[in-house]
Each structure stands twice: as C-alpha cells, then as structure tokens.
Design a protein that fits this description.
7-stranded mixed β-sheet, Aspartate Aminotransferase, domain 1, Aspartate Aminotransferase, domain 2, Aminotrans_V_dom, alpha/beta, 2 domains
C-alpha cells in the first residue's frame, strides 16, 4: 500500500476526546483517550444509581444492549457474551473450566501477552505440558502451530493481532483445521476488536479488554463463548449471577448453571464501564468496522513508509492484510525513545526491544508528521 503525500483526516474529530487538545496520542495499543460520550454515559449511570429499583432495571437494559452491540461486532448473539472484570480473569476461568489432566498439552506462542501465557504455566504444576511455538520474523503461521498439535492437545491460545509486532494471525484457517479434532481455540482479540473485523464463530472462546481499541475504559473484560463445541462446558467457579435460579427451593442443596455465557459471570459487573462500552460500541457500529479498518490500514501504511524511509527497522508487516493498528519498530532504545517523546506530549509505548505507535480512528496525517518530526534518525 502506497499512500504518497495524501493527507488522511480522522474519522472522528479530536475535540470529541478528552485530552487530545494537548497531545499526540499514538498509544491505543495500551489504552485510548476517553471520549466525551463515555463521560456522559458514566454520569447517566450515576443518575440511574440514585433511582433505586428503577435504576437497577435501567442497568439491566443497558447491559443487555451493550452485550447486543458486542455480539454484533463479533458476529454472535447476546447470549454468547459474558462480562468479567478483565480479560485475564476470563482466561484464568477458562483454564480451570477445561479440567486439564496430566499429559494434556496446551499450545501458545512467543508473540503472546502474559495474560495468555501465565494461566497455562500455572497448570504445569499438575502435569499439563505447555508447548511454545517460536515466531519467525515476527509472525506465527498456522502450520507452525499445527506441527505442535497431537491427540493430547486440548487448547491452542493465540492473539488475533500481536501486541509485540502488530502482525495479524489467520485464526479462521487455524479453526478450520482444529474443528475436526478435540482441540479448542482461545482467541484473544484485545488488539483487534474495534479496529478490524472479528468473527467469534471461528474460535471456541474469544476474549477482549474494553479499554483499548473499543474506546471504553478499565473494569470490564469480554468473554464470548461459541456453543458449537463447548455448550456443556461448566466453570470451576460459581456466583449468584452464574446460576439459573438463585432462589430455587433447593438452593441450599444444589444449583444449575445458566445454559449460556452467563454461567461464567459471578456477581455484579462494573456498570460504569458497561455504560461507557455501550456508548463506544454504538459509535464503532455506526462508523462500521470496515470503514475503521480502511482508515487505520491506510494511515498505518503511511507511517510504515515514513519510518522505513527514515531508516527504522519495522517489525510490523507491510501487507495490510497482515496487520491492524499497531506499528512496531525494533530498537533497544524503545523505552528511552518513548520517554523522550512523552516529554514532548507524544504518547507511544516503548520497551522490550521496541517502540510501538498505534493508530486509531481519531488519528490523522498530522499525528504522523508530529511523530516523525521528533523521532531520532533511525
């Protein structure tokens, strides 16, 4: 993709976001700036909170509407969606629900965030093998993963988009190969949902955070459960929200889980975060995932071209089909560069042998100009 000198404008004006009037925000792979509408949504929650039982009813209505939005973004149904405290909680609950035995194995790869790694390392204590697929030049292929799988492989864990390199993984092809086996797929879409299309029907579990590309904030994790192969899977934890009837006549002797994704929910969620996500997911749906993707890929391509011309070592694939919003640059000075830019009110992520600039729907060519004008020579 060649963008030349084309000026790319934001899909939403910067004035709609809190804080963008005095900084250049290329930090969405870590978190996004708050939209004014999210502040308004939280204030609505607080007003409803003061209405007693009426407020509770409105909370339930907003929660269902928010789940409906997330289901639309994931090509699923509201009943497939559970809200957790964060995505790490969701992944850990899945790790326990699978009831893995000694000799079973789980496949991960070296492009994964710790949340997708640590729960499986913990299971090594009970004899579960963790197989680690090495990346090649910042990417992992379906064949790399399938080469590690056998009849004792219970789960493959992979991100749709790598937080390290920004590379996009072909999870649909992987799932097509796994469907005829007993191996399940856990897909982490934290670095993709809200910026590129995602389809939960090509995974058994899909997890996501709410404070990055979805434009909401902390306090909410998303778990989407595809019932096609795991309808009978039961959690190893339980709370009053997990059960079909918490006031059943025999509630002191037994209980029955909900039959849908709600069985993974324990207690009340963060309603302030739900109100915010309801607003931001409405915004994303109105714009359209495909339109946001086109904007981000075009702007990201412009950034890659300019970084390459300046002599930087780009880790992210140039091919638009193989990336999303994260653009990573290999350098041992990543953390230092990020701190230098921060002093100039330019936000990027730096460390672990790289710095990362992330472009979203509120970014434009002017942001790229600012970044390139302040970066040292590559």
């Amino acid at each position: 993709m060649t963008t030349g000198n084309k000026r790319i404008e934001p899909l939403i004006g910067k004035s709609s976001f809190i804080g963008l009037d005095n900084c250049t925000w290329l930090y969405s792979g870590a978190e996004t700036p708050p939209h004014q509408g999210c502040l308004d949504a939280v204030q609505e929650y607080l007003r409803n909170r003061g209405m007693g039982p009426i407020g509770r009813d409105r909370n339930a209505e907003t929660e269902y509407a928010c789940k409906s939005n997330i289901a639309r973004l994931l090509n699923g149904k509201p009943s497939d969606i559970a809200f957790m405290s964060n995505s790490s909680e969701a992944i850990s609950m899945i790790a326990q629900a699978l009831d893995l035995k000694t000799g079973d194995n789980v496949i991960i790869n070296t492009l994964e965030f710790p949340s997708d790694v640590l729960p499986w390392l913990l299971l090594k204590r009970q004899g579960v093998e963790v197989r680690v697929v090495e990346h090649h030049q910042g990417q992992v292929s379906v064949s790399d993963i399938m080469a590690q799988a056998d009849d004792r492989t219970r789960l493959v864990v992979t991100s749709h988009v790598s937080y390290i390199t920004g590379a996009r993984f072909d999870y649909k092809e992987l799932y097509e190969q796994l469907k005829g086996t007993r191996t399940l797929l856990l897909l982490d879409v934290t670095q993709s949902l809200g910026v590129v299309p995602v389809d939960m029907n090509y995974a058994d579990f899909t997890v996501c955070s709410s404070y990055k590309w979805l434009l909401a904030f902390h306090g909410l994790g998303i778990l989407a459960v595809n019932p096609a192969r795991i309808a009978d899977l039961q959690p190893r934890y339980v709370g009053w929200r997990s059960v079909a009837d918490m006031f059943s006549p025999d509630r002191f002797e037994s209980f029955a889980f909900h039959e849908d994704a709600r069985k993974f929910e324990l207690g009340y969620p963060s309603y302030s975060a739900i109100y915010a996500l309801h607003f931001s997911s409405n915004l994303i749906l109105e714009l359209g995932a495909e339109r946001i993707e086109r904007h981000v890929l075009e702007l990201g391509g412009q950034l890659i071209e300019r970084l390459t011309a300046a002599g930087f070592d780009i880790m992210t694939p140039l091919d638009p089909a193989c990336r999303a919003g994260n653009i990573s640059v290999a350098t041992e000075r990543g953390e230092e560069i990020a701190k230098e830019l921060l002093n100039r009110q330019v936000f990027v992520w730096g460390g672990d042998g790289r710095f990362r600039a992330s472009v979203h729907l509120f970014n434009d060519t002017a942001d790229i100009d600012t970044l390139m004008g302040l970066l040292p020579v590559g």
